[in-house]
Each structure stands twice: as C-alpha cells, then as structure tokens.
Write a structure and sequence with these properties.
By secondary structure, the chain is α+β, with helices and mostly antiparallel strands. It contains five helices and 13 strands. InterPro entries: Flavin_Rdtase-like_dom (IPR002563), Split_barrel_FMN-bd (IPR012349).
Length: 203
C-alpha cells in the first residue's frame, strides 16, 4: 500500500486524490440571485447534510485565485439560495450550467431550465428538480489557501422550506429509486443509483 504525504502533492494532485477516493459524492445544484436580479445556477459536489436540528446543509464553493464565485457572492449579499438534488432526467442541463459565464448572464437561461417561485425566499428554484430546498445563509466560512486568498467558501445554509414531487414522498420517506439521483465521481464521470442493500445498525 502506498503511503503519501499530502504536502508532497500539488493542489491538483490532492484534488484528484480526494475526488477519486470520496465517491460517489452528492451534488448540490444551487440557484442564487445577483444584486442585479440575474438568476445564477451552478453544481457543486463538495456537499452534504450537517444536522437536522435545525436542518443545516453545507456546500464548499471553491474560489479562483482568492476571488469568490457568483454563487458565494450572491448568497452572501442576499442571504438566501435554493439547493436542488440533480437526477437522471435533467443532469445534462445541470452540467451545462457549469459553463464559465459572465456574472450578468444566467446559466438557467443557457440550459433552458424553468424557473419555479419559492415560498419563503426570494430566489427562484428550478421546476425540473424533484427535490429542492429553500435556504437562508447560516454562515459563510472562508477556508484553506491563505488569509489574503482563501481557497474555498464553506456555505452553510438553514433549510426553511422543502419541495418534493408527490410520487417520491410516502409516509415520511423518500423513494430513492423513483428519485433516480446522480452522484459525482472523478473527472467527467457520474454515477446512477445502482444496487442497494440494507444493514441493521447494531444496538
């Protein structure tokens, strides 16, 4: 077995090691509004739940040369955002929103996605998504890099409203097979929900 010190690797090599090892990763498809009213959308695979009391989720949004991405900046300015769970039915459109557009251009329009009004936040969601979560900003924590040029923003959101397709939600549980979620692997690779199995937690 190889023994590797991360300090001996470049940033890109560490990225490849992490993204090739921590798989599959759930994807947060995030919409935000700019101060000019442009609806921004982007996918992020450094994403997970933190706690259910209150419901908090976290997304790591990398910076470029210390400069915030539109998603972080918009969330910080408005204090709101919407997270969607990508599935097989619209994952290609989600991928299109990863294009590098100017901040005054909308990835939602580029990918021909449909806006859906939110209930408790001012940021619209995406109608194609079977699950979306309206969020308010709990914290944004710059991490990594240097104090002058952080490597990423850890965006922590408190979920204030859920939307879920009727066919997915029965007796308080979500049907994963009907959701058809898509996860992230390394490089350009993704994964669908495959064979599942159950293990009883020991007492």
């Amino acid at each position: 077995m190889k023994s590797i010190d991360p300090q001996d690797l470049s940033v890109k090599e560490n990225y490849k090691f992490l993204t090739g090892s921590i798989i599959p990763r759930p994807i947060a498809f995030v919409t935000t509004l700019s101060s000019e009213g442009v609806l921004n959308a982007a996918p992020f695979s450094y994403f997970n739940a933190l706690t259910s009391n209150p419901p908090l989720i976290a997304i790591s949004i990398g910076r470029k040369d210390g400069i915030q991405k539109d998603t972080s900046r918009n969330a910080e300015e408005l204090g709101e955002f919407v997270v969607h769970i990508p599935d097989e039915t619209y994952i290609e459109a989600v991928n299109q929103t990863a294009a590098n557009l100017e901040s005054d251009q909308s990835e939602v329009e580029l990918a021909n996605l449909t806006k859906a009004e939110s209930v408790k936040v001012g940021v619209p969601g995406i109608a194609e998504s079977k699950i979306r979560m309206e969020c308010v900003v709990e914290q944004i924590i710059p991490l990594g890099g240097s104090p002058e040029k952080p490597a990423t923003d850890l965006l922590i959101g408190r979920v204030v409203h859920y939307h879920i397709s009727d066919e997915l939600y029965q007796n308080g549980r979500i049907d994963a097979e009907k959701l058809k979620p898509v996860g992230r692997l390394a490089g350009s690779n993704y994964v669908k929900l495959g064979e599942t199995f159950s293990l009883e937690r020991p007492e």
